[in-house]
Design goal:
- By secondary structure, this protein is α+β, with helices and mostly antiparallel strands.
- Helices cover about 30% and strands about 20% of the residues.
- The strands form three sheets. Strands 1, 2, 3, 4, 5, 10, 11, 12, 13, 14 and 15 form an eleven-stranded antiparallel beta sheet that branches. A three-stranded mixed beta sheet has the order 8-7-16. A two-stranded antiparallel sheet has the order 6-9.
- Helix 1 (about 45-60) runs antiparallel to helix 12 and helix 2 (about 100-115) crosses helix 8.
- The protein is globular, with a radius of gyration of 20 Å.
Length: about 400
């Protein structure tokens, strides 16, 4: 099933009026949103976006959704099912696990602490967490930019996708247990020498948040981000296994072709925590990245540091918990990708935060779906100039 709606809010906060464009089973949404031409962006290619969702489902995702928020105009589309068992159609407002999009939330909290002069980005992690790491040259900035050299413990944990997942589905880890798993391995590079994506970095980020504030990461997320931005669909429920409210089920694709999908919706996500355990919705992620890039969460100086990028490959660069994607039409967008068992997420916005887009597919361990979903960025930000990327760039 595909459905799509467009709404445009009047100025001064008046209620938005929604216009149903299409709500026909097994048909693609058509038409183009006539959005404001702010920042010289082409209007989103809404037909192209719907085609991306259709292709993602054809490639193996039970369901997919996307939402664009563009200077007061909203476009949203869905395809497929939120629940294969009940055959409930995907809803544009369904909640889901956002995976590594969590990393931006964690980085924002630490950068706010830097704004408050409670944290020095170029100080060693061991200043705040004595004895945690074997090398006191590793700084907070290097952790947030994936340049610490700390090995990613998930490489071992999920070498076999289904068995690895079932082994940790209900487990509750401490942060220190996860760091210890990383430290069994040599570091990938000297501190600061190179970019190397590692979930261990943002486990350390969570430890820093809790040590400096004396509060849980949940409390800091809620007080500093969720609450101020009124993100009503966004939660940190760890170690609870359930997604509150109406949500999309996530389905893990097994390594062996032909094996049935595994419903991975209920899990602690304790293996990720501050690196990947947030639950949210497309509306809330668009709001979050729009606010962040629009300067509402950090000082201008801290936001500039967050956006100072290390090149990863030809189309991707990484700052402090923030990824930049350089699109084929010459536009660059900022945000993060997320992978957690059963869910792929792309959540990005323009440099000024004026246009934001979140796309979700409800599977993981399926490279074809991941690569297909990347095309949502082209449709959302490049309009009809856009074209599908040949491959997804980088890890998560």
């Amino acid at each position: 099933m595909v459905s799509a709606t467009v709404s445009r809010g009047a100025v001064l906060g008046a209620a938005a009026v929604a216009l149903s464009l299409l709500a026909v089973p097994a048909r693609a949404a058509t038409g183009e949103v006539k959005s404001p031409a702010a920042a010289g962006l082409p209007a989103p290619d809404t037909a192209g976006l719907a085609a991306v969702l259709r292709s993602a489902v054809a490639a193996g995702a039970p369901g997919a959704l996307a939402r664009i928020d563009d200077h007061g105009t909203t476009y949203q589309a869905t395809r497929g099912y939120a629940d294969r068992g009940t055959r409930r159609p995907m809803g544009a407002g369904d909640r889901f696990r956002v995976g590594s999009v969590t990393k931006t939330f964690s980085a924002v909290v630490l950068l706010q602490l830097a704004d408050e002069h409670r944290l020095v980005l170029d100080a060693p992690v061991d200043r705040y967490l004595p004895g945690l790491l074997p090398d006191d040259r590793i700084t907070v900035r290097q952790v947030l930019s994936h340049r610490s050299g700390l090995y990613d413990f998930t490489n071992d944990m999920f070498a076999d996708s289904v068995r690895g997942f079932e082994a940790v589905r209900d487990r509750v880890f401490t942060y220190r247990e996860l760091v210890a798993l990383s430290l069994r391995h040599p570091r990938t590079n000297a501190p600061g020498a190179a970019y190397s994506y590692s979930n261990t970095n943002f486990v350390v980020a969570g430890m820093l948040i809790e040590k400096i504030t004396g509060h849980s990461v949940r409390t800091e997320y809620e007080n500093r981000v969720f609450g101020p931005l009124k993100l009503r669909d966004t939660f940190y429920v760890h170690p609870d296994t359930r997604i509150p409210g109406t949500h999309a089920h996530g389905y893990l694709t097994p390594d062996t072709a032909g094996d049935p999908l595994v419903d991975a919706t209920e899990q602690t996500v304790s293996w990720a925590q501050s690196a990947g355990a947030i639950v949210s919705s497309a509306r809330d992620l668009d709001t979050f990245y729009g606010a962040l890039l629009g300067g509402r969460l950090l000082s201008a100086a801290r936001l500039a540091e967050m956006e100072r990028m290390t090149r990863v490959d030809a189309t991707t660069a990484y700052g402090l918990g923030l990824r930049r994607r350089d699109l084929p039409c010459g536009i660059s967008v900022y945000g993060h990708t997320g992978t957690v068992q059963g869910y792929y997420t792309y959540a990005f916005a323009t440099k000024d935060g004026g246009r934001s887009m979140t796309a979700l597919a409800t599977t993981s361990n399926n490279g074809k779906v991941l690569n297909t979903l990347a095309g949502a960025l082209d449709s959302a930000f490049c309009g009809k100039q856009g074209k599908r990327w040949p491959q997804a760039a980088g890890k998560e």
